Amino acid sequence: PEVVRLAVIPGDGIGPEVVAATVPALRSALEAEGHRLDVTSYDWGGERYLRQGAAMPADAADLVKQADAVLFGAVGRPDVPEHELVWGLIIGLRQQLDLAVNLRPVRAFPGVPTKVRDTDGVDLVIVRENTEGEYVGAGGMAHAGSGHDLGIEVAVHSRRAIERAAHQAFALAGRRSGHLCLVTKSNAMRYGYPLWDRVVREVGEHYPAVRLETVLVDAMAARMIQDPRSLDVLLASNLFGDILSDLAAVLAGGMGMAPSANVLPGADVPGVYEPVHGSAPDIAGKGVANPVACMLSGAMLLDDLGHAGAARRVRDAVAATLRDTRHHTADLGGDASTAEVASAVLHTM
Amino acid sequence: PEVVRLAVIPGDGIGPEVVAATVPALRSALEAEGHRLDVTSYDWGGERYLRQGAAMPADAADLVKQADAVLFGAVGRPDVPEHELVWGLIIGLRQQLDLAVNLRPVRAFPGVPTKVRDTDGVDLVIVRENTEGEYVGAGGMAHAGSGHDLGIEVAVHSRRAIERAAHQAFALAGRRSGHLCLVTKSNAMRYGYPLWDRVVREVGEHYPAVRLETVLVDAMAARMIQDPRSLDVLLASNLFGDILSDLAAVLAGGMGMAPSANVLPGADVPGVYEPVHGSAPDIAGKGVANPVACMLSGAMLLDDLGHAGAARRVRDAVAATLRDTRHHTADLGGDASTAEVASAVLHTM
Ligand SMILES: CC(C)[C@H](C(=O)O)[C@@H](O)C(=O)O
Ligand SMILES: CC(C)[C@H](C(=O)O)[C@@H](O)C(=O)O
Question: Which pLDDT value is given to residue A21?
């Protein structure tokens, strides 16, 4: 029997609620396969920021490196400046652990209503570069306060980061449909996105079985809704991956359905698994949040640790649960509580 | 009787086809109101680039300034590098004429099928900053060709440009629902978008009757599809406006339905009116392009020149035509030709 050492960061808002719904499902799935789950929980997030002036400790990256993987809920609360939690925690962890890619799969589950017609069979993955691009925090202000202020944002796209993400995307596309869509905006931006086009084409030479298509981000936004079944694996920069993954979640019923994995493949660094949704302060504390995105993030975590059997148990139980509309939370048009969904998943497993 | 002096740039691909379908409708609408249309056509675009090495002449901006307004089809052809036509024509004209905002209305027409459920009554406008942001063309390469290449994109957001766009957006929201959504990404980008948040809030103090809501671009992408009727006027940067307007077009049936106006309100500079779609080389020359986006761009043009009656004639005729699915082009699931739609609109007018 193996022991999975899990670091858990419940965070703020609905974060703790969806994490509390997920951990028992992961434990039960692992135990059914003869393994064990060992959980260390960290109180990082907005409350810690208010108490101690920092959302996480300076040695946070070292602490989570003792675990096999990290399950992250959500951070953000109205009384804390958002950038303190984003840079002090989410983006901070991604960049400090150098988690090269953010994998954001979107799959339509039978029985779940969507605002988009004909989503049956939608099953795509966004491979998002996760360490740089528009998220490097570079830039500055000129003429600040003069009435002629300029805000300057500098995005940095490196061959190294593009290559890392591209190899993941091509390998994944090779294991799936053999079709990869690169999303850039090289007709308007002249340096970073043309470099993406060039480097990804070069990496593609190592994957002759994968067909590479390059699509402008504006056209992709429309196509994501108009023709999602024409898509399988998407490769995108940090910013475009962010926008497209929220959009893609709509195909599965919304943000409550979208899991993600921040990973550095091939390295001995724990991945950070998190629902794509945020802390949703408006519904926090009411016990009505949809825990599915977090549960599916947990399934990705199990998969990546080599526990495919346990991962399948979680995913199958989620799918079976969602088939019954009585187990749909408010975001899906139902009235089930978070706890009801959690218990339905556990009992189906 | 007034004479409207129209400069026409049909451009490439389906551009000439949709422009040819539109000009007679504008003429007929103006004549019905006792006015006249005077057209000067410019052969700018990809063919000119191949012939003369430039998509438009150096004095293009001066030439079109002799007109009251410009109707632009589309540019882009597979055998010309896209940036030559984009920077040499579309972005070139927008920036040389200093056309501060790009207005992109999206309205669901009864009878037009959409991939999104419940789009009845969708009626929103994206006010896109049109001169700077991610579209300034600034940046460069470092370590080019070394294997450690860096592509650096610099986006510039100025108080002046934000203020101009914000005044338009607030004034428009004041004439409509009194609700304005500003779209930024200030949790990840630290300079340009926080400046947007600040300046737009300040401008808002002059419009106490308008409620300002600030939404992150990723959340807005999802909301655009999940809950479009919660939106009326959106204010966005050049890049976010680009992405969101293609997406919003889906609510109206796709890119064939989305008009736009590049304008500098309050100045004696001709606006450039163009369908949001591109040159669509795949269907060019077949006579099957949807001319509605171009026709509705023409209606915006008439409106802005003070010909509200003629504009209404065009719009009403388009709406009446679209009610009959026999007049739907292929993009709307029909088999009508461009010419059939054009003639139906003319006969309805
Ligand atoms: C909180 C925010 C900075 C983050 C992002 O933009 O990456 C979030 O939207 C996400 O998608 O994980
Ligand atoms: C052609 C391209 C540069 C342009 C843009 O990005 O502005 C187009 O997509 C548009 O929306 O008008």
Answer: 98
